[in-house]
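Model: Ready when you are.
Researcher: Fold this.
Model:
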Amino acid sequence: MRYQSSVLHQILKHIPWNSFDRLVEKHQADKRVRRLSTKSQLIALIYGQLSGAQSLREIEAGLKSHANQLYHAGSAAIRRSTLSDANGKRPAAVFVGLFEEMSKSVHRGLRRELPDLTYLIDATPLTLNAKSADWTARFSKKVYGGKLHMIYDPAADVPIYAALSAANVNDITVAKKMPIEPGATYVFDLGYYDYSWWKTLDDAGCRIVTRLKKNTPLAILQEVPVAKTGSILCDRIGFLPRKLSYTNRNPMADAVREVQVKTDQGKILRIFSNDLDAKAEEIAALYKYRWQIELLFRWIKQVLKIRHFLGTSQNAVLIQLIVALIAYLALRLAQRTQTTILSPLAFARLVRVNLTHKRRLDRLLRPIEHFVADTQQMVLKWT
C-alpha cells in the first residue's frame, strides 16, 4: 500500500528546512538544548496555529495524541513548560529569518506574472495583559497593548515584512526601519505622515499614495480637469509648505499632487501622491486598495488565532506572530499544489479539521466515507 502522509506533514513540506537548519546554526539556537530542539518548537507552534489551539496545554495534549504523525514529521511530543521556556528564551531571529526567506521565495514565484509592485503598509493592535507590562503600552489596570507592523503585497497575497512594537510607538518610527524596494508603489495612511520619510521613498523612485491632513495647505500650480460626475472632485498639482518651522525646511520641495475623492459615506478624502502622470482614478483606486491589508489582519487574527498569546515576553509574542505568518505562507504554498479548493479561507478550515488525517490535499472536500472507500480499494489492490 502506498504511504500517504498526514495533512500536517504535507503542509510542513513547504518549510525550507535546510535554510532553517542554517539559521539555527547561525544563531546557536540549539546550543545546550537537551529536551526540545528548535525544529520541534517550530513544528509544535505551527501545529498550534493550524489546529486553532489557544493554549500551551492544548498544544501539548494535541501533539501527545498524534505521536505517530509527529515522528514522520521529524518531531515528538512535548511538555508545555518546556515549550514555554523555549518561546521565552530561544532567539526570535531564527524564525524572523525563516519568514523572510519564505516570503521572498513565495513572492518571487508569484511575481513572475505580476510586474507591478504595489505594497501596503499598516499596523494592527494587539491586546495583552499586565504580565507584558515591561515592553507594552498600558491602557488600563488589566489591558496592555502592542502592535504588529507589516508590509503586504496584495497582488501576490504575501506579507513581506513584519515587526512588533509597543502600542505607543509611532508607526512612522517603525516604518523608517522597513526595507524599501526602489521603484515600487507604497500605499499607507495618516499614521505614516512624515515628509522626510516620504522624501526617502521619493529619492528611491517610489510612488507614494497616502492622505493629506485637513490642515495641510497646498500651493496650487495647476488644476487638472476632471469629470463632472463621479467620485473625483478635483485633481491638483502644487507644492507643500516650503518650511515646517522657522529653521526647518520641508524636504518634499518638488511638485506633488492632490486628488480629492468623495466616498460613498459622503466623506471627502485628500489623497496625496508624487505621481503627476497617472490618472486620478488610478490614484484613488490605489488608496482604496489599502483596505486589503485590513482584510489580511482580520484573516490572520480569526483563522490563525493570534488573539490569544502563549507567552507574555516580547520574545515569545514575536515568535508566535512570526510563526503565524510562516504558517500562512505554508498554507499559501500548499494550496497552490491543488486546484480543487480555490478559497484560502475554505482551504485553511479544511486543513484544520483534517490536520492529522492521512488525506491528499486535493481531496479534502470529499466526504470521509469516500476517503475510507479509496483506502480500502488501495489495500485490496496491493494485497
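Researcher: Now this one.
Model:
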Amino acid sequence: MAAARLEIFGDGEALAAAAARFVADRARDYIEASGRFTFAVSGGRTPWAMFDRLIEADLAWERIHIYQVDERIAPDGDPDRNLTQLLDRLPPLVSLHPMPVTSADISAAAREYAASLPARFDLIHLGLGTDGHTASLVPGDPVLAIDDQDVGVTREYMGHRRMTLTYPVINRASGVLWLVSGSDKVDALARLLSQDQGIPAGRVAASDQLVFADRAAHPSGDALQA
C-alpha cells in the first residue's frame, strides 16, 4: 500500500476549514457521478470544527448519507456520544445513520448496522489517538483481529465499550481522510506516516489516504496557506 499523502496547516482552525472544503468538493463530485455521497465520520474536536464550517457549504444535502465510524455504548443524549455532537451540526435534509448502541443485544445490533452499510464508502474520516488508535480500534483489543465483519464491539476503553467499523470496511473505502491536530499527536502521527504496524492506525490499508495535520502535530513540515 502507498503511504498516506500529507498536508500541513498552520493551526487547527486552518485545518478544519481545509477539511470542510475537501469534503464539500468530494461530495459534489460523487453526487454528480452517482447521485449520492456516503461519508462515515469519527468523533473528536477537529471534526466538529470541520462540520461547523461544512454546514455553510452549498451542497445537495438530501443526497448525502452520514454514517458513524464508532460510537460509545451509552444512552441517547449522553454528552460522551458522538451522535449528540452530530445532531447539533447536520442539516435536517441529511440522511443520518446512527449506530444502534442502545440495543439490548449489542452484538446483533452490530451485525444489523454492518448490513446497512454501503458496499464501499465514498469517504471515511478518521482521527488519531495519542496511543495510536483510530476509530475505536484500540491497542490490544480483540476487535483488531476481526477480518470477516464490518462492525465490531470493543472491550471497555476509557470508561465505555464501543461499536466500531473494522479494518475490512475501512480498507474498502474509496478514500480516507485523517484529521490530526495537537502537539500530543507528534509521535503517533510519525508512526502513522511510517505505516507502523505496531499501532492500530498503522494497519489501515485503504488505497487512497490523505492526512491533514496542523503544525503542532507535525512541527517539522511547512504549512499550507489556509
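Researcher: Key takeaway?
Model: Strands lie at 5-9, 37-41, 64-68, 70-72, 95-97, 123-126, 151-153, 162-165, 176-180, 209-214.
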